[in-house]
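Entry 14. Structure prediction run on the chain below.
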Amino acid sequence: MSERRSVRFISSEPVPRELIEIAIETASSAPSGAHRQPWTFVAVSDPDLKREIRIAAEKEEELSYGGRMPPDWLEALAPLGTDWRKPFLEEAPWLVVVFAQLHNFDSEGRKIKHYYVQESVGIACGMFIAALHNMGLSTLTHTPSPMRFLSKLLQRPAHERPYILFPIGYASRDATIPDLRRKSLEDVAIWK
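Output returned:
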């Protein structure tokens, strides 16, 4: 897993749906508050819908890079070479958008409370990333802010909120990947 990197240069080479299914099933095995599994994974391969998502995401990103992000955030992003342009949203064979369910409903329409939603969905997303990596697929955690446009484009109900957008595919042959160093064990662990 220490070899895993966020990849922004994704090949349009097809990825079998079965691999995406396996990754979603793996993610859904994550622990969750009261075992409510408060997530929905929306897998998108339709080129027209991916284009709509890209256009909407870039609109938000251009506003963010153009003034919504404070200077220190832009400075932190500078070594990664990112900007508001997100061609990977169209180039990737799959986009998977994970939605956090704030609550749900039973068969009679009564509200079912969910517990530890953010933590549960975060763990599921981590397992999703690990599954993709172990299959040789590349992704990154894309979180344009705000993300409500995803709810509208993907026709999700009001009790779900977009959490992360994952473009998924094989890294392109000319992918440039930052040479990042991870913190050492001594920097992240305390033993008592």
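Strands lie at 39-44, 94-101, 103-105, 111-113, 160-168.
Filed with the rest of this week's runs.
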